[in-house]
Amino acid sequence: MSQAAIYVMAAAAVIGAGVYGLLVAGHLLRKLLAINLLGSGVFLLLVALAGRSGGAPDPVPQALVITGIVVAVSMTAFALALLDRLFRETGQARMDVADDDD
Amino acid sequence: MTTEASLVGLVFLPLLAACLLWAVGQRAPWLRQGLVWLSLLAPLALLLAPTLALTTQPVVEVVLAGHAPPLGIGLRLDALSLLMLWLVAVVGAGAGAYASFVEPPGSDAGTRFWPPWLLLMTGLNALFLSADLFNLYVAIELVTLAAVALVAWSGKGAALRAAMRYLLLAMLASLAYLLAVALLYAEHGTLDLYLLARGVAAGSDTTRIALALLIVSLLLKAAIFPLHIWLPPAHARAPGAVSAVLSALVVKGGVYLVYRIWFWTLDGAQPALVANLLGALGACAIVYGSIAALLQSRLKPLVAYSTVAQLGYLMLVFPMTATVASGALAWKGVIYQLLSHGLAKAALFLAAASLLRGVGSDRLVDLAGASRRFPLSVFAVGLSGISLMGLPPSGGFLAKWLLLEAAWIQRGWVWMAVLLLGSLLASVYVFRALSAMMATPGDDAKAPVDAALPRPVPWQMDVAAVTLALLAVIAGFASAPIFELLNAAAPFPRVESATPISERALP
Question: Residue B35: inside a domain, yes or no?
Answer without folding.
Answer: no
